[in-house]
Amino acid sequence: MAEPIDFLAIGLSGIVIALSGWNLYLSHYREQRSEVSLRPEGSDTPPEFKGGNLAIDDSSYWSSNYYLKLVNNGEKSAYISSFDHQLRGLVEDDEFENTDNFSIKVNETRQSWVGTELEPHSTKRYRLYAKISPEDDIGPLVNADSAVIEHTLELEDNKGSYEVVCDTEVALIGPEQAIENWQKQNE
Questions:
Q1: Closest of 90, 81, 107, 93 to residue 162, by C-alpha
Q2: pTM for this predicted structure
Q3: For the domain with range 33-185, which CATH number is right: 2.120.10.30, 3.40.50.1820, 2.60.40.10, 3.40.50.2300?
Q4: Any idea what the Cα angle at residue 149 is, between residues 147 and 150, rounded to 5°?
Q5: If the chain, 187 residues long, is cut into consecutive pieces of 10 residues, what is the mean pLDDT of each piece?
Q6: Theoretical Cys-Cys bridge with 133: which of 47, 51, 60, 61, CB 3.0 to 4.6 Å?
Q7: Helix (H, G, I), strand (E, B) or coil at 111
């Protein structure tokens, strides 16, 4: 005699298989996103603005080389659509002060970031060259301990565009001759 068929067990097994297949389908086709972070990258020496033009007027400038690290921890690629730099302010005696009368120019050495693709689970390290110039006199640059530069990176991925922002604090050192000339003039 044939064994009775357990329709309840077959029904439950079918439901479990259907749910497992549905979850597998959703996890495979689920929209994932890139997860990009931008941060200052240490080097052998801390970033500092040194050297530059020795004048004490608006032709003087401070320049620096420093590094930024770009990391994509996400599952999707990201394209860099723009990269902007602004001088947020100066730090003097641990006090932050906004500045409007300075211009900053940041050049990417080796290659441009804009238009490049950042693969999933990848890291890139970029060397930047920055130059700060006062619009009137160098007094605030002479008195300040460091400058804060804001880097804004606009990225595009499979879900649209988003921004990543990073601040870099760079020490202001020298040029010694310009500082001495400025101090002599203001005595």
A1: 81
A2: 0.70
A3: 2.60.40.10
A4: 150
A5: 67 84 68 80 63 57 82 89 86 82 68 82 86 71 81 89 89 68 70
A6: 61
A7: coil
